[in-house]
User: Fold this.
Amino acid sequence: GDSVTQMEGPVTLSEEAFLTINCTYTATGYPSLFWYVQYPGEGLQLLLKATKADDKGSNKGFEATYRKETTSFHLEKGSVQVSDSAVYFCALSDQGGYQKVTFGTGTKLQVIP
Amino acid sequence: SAVISQKPSRDICQRGTSLTIQCQVDSQVTMMFWYRQQPGQSLTLIATANQGSEATYESGFVIDKFPISRPNLTFSTLTVSNMSPEDSSIYLCSVEDSRDEQYFGPGTRLTVT
Assistant:
């Protein structure tokens, strides 16, 4: 079945540091890939997505590129802020049938001033 | 994007009782999803609810434990029946829009004592 593996957290970075959160996936077919973010005390929000190979999703300075050859969708940001502290979930949606979303385990990011 | 509300936002319940969680969406949607997020873990899909038909449950979840209603295109309920401490989780509903993006409600934080 489908699965998503993302790097263990927590990740602690200083403000303005470069961020990478690794995510790899296993799926049949050609899934859509997503990053969701959960800020403290809030619900899950879609951060960015990519629907086909080599697509780059971007939002709020975050980027991720759909790499079919390595089955990866790593999240990056050039300069993190304290306000980026949250839990980040990598996810995929199999494009066959209804859009069931499979989530990774989440990576907690803490940015310190 | 869809705006989703859930009631209650949190509850503390006694073992053996049942709780019904409501999910309201501000627009008509075909499919609604119910997820569980256990403490420190990722999201797990419980079931998919289409209006006018029986909900489809994922492996490990059964209708007797998690009955779902979907009376119209903007509303659904999930009941957690005969609760035990292992049911302590955040329960989230989500909907999918025409761009195949899922939007999540704020969640219901359930504690079973």
In short: The first strand of chain A starts at residue 3 and ends at 6. Chain A has a mean pLDDT of 92.
